[in-house]
DNA sequence: CTACATGCAAACCGTTTGCACCCTA
DNA sequence: TAGGGTGCAAACGGTTTGCATGTAG
């Protein structure tokens, strides 16, 4: 597993350090986007010696290289990150337990083209989040 | 015009103050969502005596009463506000000149239902932003 | 006259930065 | 051994808060 991270860092001209590998591993294992301070807490729990600013700098570097990606539009106030398993995606967020589910399909390709025609904009991308209650939280309301 | 703001505040149990009326007027006149510090600057330009924290508190109260609405997911780092001219809407943002266009139609109603069936979530709302270049910025690229 | 609004200054919180030291390639 | 990476502490920017004062209803 670590070999993958090592490769990925090397291929992108980033040096291999125990801190970066640990960050990648946390993001990889985590099944949903996670905030910077949660990454930091998980690193500490694993007894990995690291500074918060190093987390920020490592994350920034890896995001630039598209190894991970940033979600700065989800929850007000702070950024979330996830390992880059696929390209375009959307998010389904439970308003109860705050669980974030990543959606890999996109219902908007056609709509983008229509909108381009209507507005004369050259549309390049979009961000979509859906909010609601997961089956479990919905039951307990 | 001021009568409308006065009514709106009264109906929502908020006191009429020159500061609140001035904020509402700026948001009403502005044709696109605007940041808090820009509201503050415009107030100062109009020689209205107000403190930044009053802007924040007034805006918060008016947002709670649904007189205005908050966009905290658009541009990283700070919140934007707009006068509540209609309910549900989306945003088209020019990556060149940063102009924000509000879109009042929604292509996702059907999709929401499909997703509800597929995930068993109770979906309540969504946020959508599209990014691209407006005709003018596209020309100059 | 009383509860809500405001101004001011200080705190807050996520994030960034400058600088000295460290360590990977 | 050179240049990127790290730790630490301090700064930053948007936002919030405590408290005293002011004012709309």
Question: Can you give a write-up of this model?
Answer:
Two copies of one chain form a homodimer. The relative contact order of chain A is 0.13. In chain A, the strands form two sheets. Chain A has a three-stranded antiparallel beta sheet with strand order 1-3-2. Chain A is globular. Chain A has six helices and six strands, in the order H-H-E-H-H-E-E-E-E-H-E-H. The model of chain A has no long low-confidence stretch (mean pLDDT 93). Chain A has two domains: 1-85, Winged helix-like DNA-binding domain superfamily/Winged helix DNA-binding domain (Arc Repressor Mutant, subunit A); 87-141, Ferric-uptake regulator, C-terminal dimerisarion domain (Dna Ligase, domain 1), CATH 3.30.1490. The first copy, chain A, is α+β, with helices and mostly antiparallel strands and 141 residues long. Chain A binds chain B through residues 72-74, 76-77, 79, 92, 94-95, 101, 103, 107-108, 111-112, 115-116, 119-135, 138, and chain B through 72-74, 76, 79, 92, 94-95, 101, 103, 107-108, 111-112, 115-116, 119-135, 138. Strand 6 (122-133) of chain A pairs antiparallel with strand 6 (122-133) of chain B. Chain A binds a DNA duplex (25 and 25 nucleotides) through helix 4.
Considering the chains and any ligands shown, give keywords for the structure.
homodimer, 141 residues, alpha+beta, 2 domains, three-stranded mixed β-sheet, 6 strands, DNA-binding
How would you summarize this macromolecular structure in one to three sentences?
The structure is a homodimer. The first copy, chain A, is α+β, with helices and mostly antiparallel strands.
């Amino acid at each position: 597993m670590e070999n993958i991270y090592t490769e990925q860092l090397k291929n992108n001209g980033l040096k291999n350090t125990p801190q970066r590998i640990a960050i990648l591993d946390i993001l990889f294992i985590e099944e949903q986007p996670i905030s910077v301070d949660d990454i930091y807490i998980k690193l500490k729990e694993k007894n990995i010696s690291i500074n918060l600013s190093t987390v920020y700098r490592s994350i920034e570097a890896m995001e630039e290289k598209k190894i991970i990606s940033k979600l700065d539009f989800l929850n007000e106030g702070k950024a979330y990150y996830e390992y880059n398993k696929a390209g375009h995606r959307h998010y389904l967020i439970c308003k109860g337990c705050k669980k974030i589910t990543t959606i890999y399909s996109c219902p908007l390709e056609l709509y983008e083209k229509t909108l381009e025609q209507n507005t004369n904009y050259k549309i390049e991308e979009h961000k979509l989040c859906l909010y609601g209650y997961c089956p479990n939280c919905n039951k307990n309301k």
